[in-house]
Design brief:
With 175 residues, this protein is an all-alpha fold. The chain is 67% helix and 0% strand.
């Protein structure tokens, strides 16, 4: 049986949702979840950003030999992503931080991604299911979030020389 809402009830629901999202944002900032301080050795990425990105990277990239064989490949990709973000505008950095906040805050991470525990403990199947859900979502915001994560992580990975051999790219020409 479909739920039928009057205009007044719909407005109340919208207002309540807005207040809840605002409360989550305030709670996150007061709890330090959305700290703007970069992690040690990084210019933009924060401590809380590293775990979800490290969990997402292997799923986004797929079974790339260098990712599986090179020790420190994920960390190198995260440093490359950080360098790329550092060269982007403050507005883009802010949007990326907000996206990563959604992935970090337990109040939003579970319902939005289906990953209810820590990212380090999420299975590849859970992460893949989250990415497919966002990629194929009817909500444009989630599709945009997927595209942003996909572009950022793949850009960072394929900017690394260790990723080039498998693709047949010899690297930039020497001048």
């Amino acid at each position: 049986m479909p739920i039928v809402l009057s205009r007044r009830e719909l407005l109340k629901l919208g207002l309540g949702t807005s207040l809840a999202v605002s409360a989550i944002g305030v709670t996150a900032s007061l709890a330090g979840c959305s700290s703007d301080r970069p992690a040690t050795g990084f210019a933009v990425l924060r401590d809380g950003d590293l775990a979800p990105l490290a969990a997402l990277l292997p799923i986004m990239v797929g079974p790339h030999p260098a990712l599986q064989q090179e020790q420190g490949a994920i960390e190198a990709a995260l440093h490359q992503l950080d360098r790329s973000l550092a060269s982007m505008s403050p507005a883009i950095q802010k949007e990326v931080r907000e996206l990563l906040d959604l992935l970090n805050l337990p109040l939003t991470r579970g319902p939005l991604t289906g990953v209810w525990g820590a990212w380090e403990k999420a299975s590849p199947e859970d992460i893949d299911a989250f990415l497919v859900r966002w990629r194929d979502s009817r909500l444009d915001l989630l599709r945009q979030g997927y595209k942003a994560l996909n572009q950022l992580l793949l850009m960072a990975w394929y900017a690394l020389p260790m990723a080039w051999a498998e693709t047949g790219y010899p690297g930039p020409p020497r001048i």
